[in-house]
Write a structure and sequence with these properties.
single chain; 313 residues; alpha+beta; Triger factor/SurA peptide-binding fold; Chitinase A, domain 3; five-stranded antiparallel β-sheet; extended
């Protein structure tokens, strides 16, 4: 991820239709048998085909196929999660699920269509993954929404936990004021054009000594963009970027980076010490929140699953 990007910034088919799809894909009697119902959860079926599909997905994502009971429990959990979420109005539409599916593909550096082809190449329906995405999405929103107050982590508790780790709670941290800059290079341009703009960027690094100068230069140049000031603390940034900014004098530009947009830099407009947050406090806070969330989620799931009507066939 580039410096500038870091700054400018987780329906089941009807049974008859599923059966038709399976028959069209071939397999005759074997696939027909796979459509038999294994479990009914609150009146909704989980078929042997659903179990096969999820097992294939598990093998693809985890490297080995999970056992049948593990898969079945996962599918049952998803059914009760989605039903419970609907009771509280948490019910994303197909468009929301498709968007999350596309986001997952993007994180894998694929398009949605490419991810679909990868899954289909392994004999997995895209809906199998989308169903898991939906269950995770609604459950996370439900738990965080219903138990918002009890999931909060106090700053005093965070500070005490940090001290227990042996690091001072108020370790040095900074607030940075920055302006991302890009010298645009058209897509498909030859390497020589990138080299030319890089040399141009290096020349500007020697000239620019303030953000006022940076604005004057870059706003008057062709094929160049300078964005609005972005404010981030040390806790918001990865270590590599923090180190880079700490070495950059105020008013100067960071080293140029080659990206899809062209040549990117950051003008450092200000840096001041802050105790509002530190990387260690942020890490500790998120870890403590995660532990609270996992405990609440597990207890809540046990409660709704116990109340569910689960009939094994």
């Amino acid at each position: 991820m580039t410096t500038a990007r870091l700054l400018t910034c987780r329906r089941s088919l009807p049974l008859s239709l599923m059966l038709a799809v399976v028959l069209l894909l071939g397999g005759g009697g074997v696939r027909l048998h796979a459509q038999t119902i294994a479990v009914m959860v609150n009146g909704e079926p989980i078929t042997n085909f659903d179990i096969e599909q999820r097992a294939k997905l598990g093998a693809l994502t985890a490297g080995k196929a999970p056992d049948r009971q593990t898969v079945l429990n996962e599918l049952i959990d998803e059914k009760v999660k989605i039903k419970e979420a609907k009771k509280f109005g948490v019910d994303p539409g197909a468009g929301d699920i498709d968007q999350a599916f596309g986001g997952m593909a993007q994180r894998m550096r694929l398009s949605g269509d490419q991810l679909t082809k990868v899954l289909e190449g392994k004999g997995i329906r895209p809906d199998t993954l989308k169903q898991r995405i939906k269950a995770d999405m609604v459950w996370s929103n439900l738990v965080r929404g219903r138990f918002k107050e009890s999931l909060q982590v106090g700053e005093k508790d965070v500070a005490e936990k940090v001290k227990e780790s042996g690091e001072a709670a108020e370790a040095e941290a900074f607030e940075y004021r920055m302006q991302p800059v890009v010298l645009i290079v058209p897509r498909g341009a030859p390497p020589a054009e990138f080299d030319g703009r890089r040399k141009e960027a290096e020349t500007l690094r020697e000239r620019v000594t303030s953000c006022e100068e940076a604005n004057t230069y870059f706003k008057s140049m062709r094929n160049t963009a300078i964005r609005e000031i972005v404010v981030k603390t040390s806790a918001d940034l990865p270590q590599q970027l923090r180190d880079l900014l700490d070495k950059t004098p105020i008013g100067h530009l960071t080293s140029p980076e080659v990206t899809k947009q062209g040549i990117e830099m950051v003008a450092l407009c200000g840096r001041k010490a802050t105790t509002v947050d530190t990387p260690k406090k942020r890490e500790t806070r998120e870890k403590m929140y995660g532990q609270k969330y996992e405990a609440k989620s597990k207890a809540y799931l046990q409660e709704v699953r116990k109340a569910a009507m689960i009939e094994y066939r």
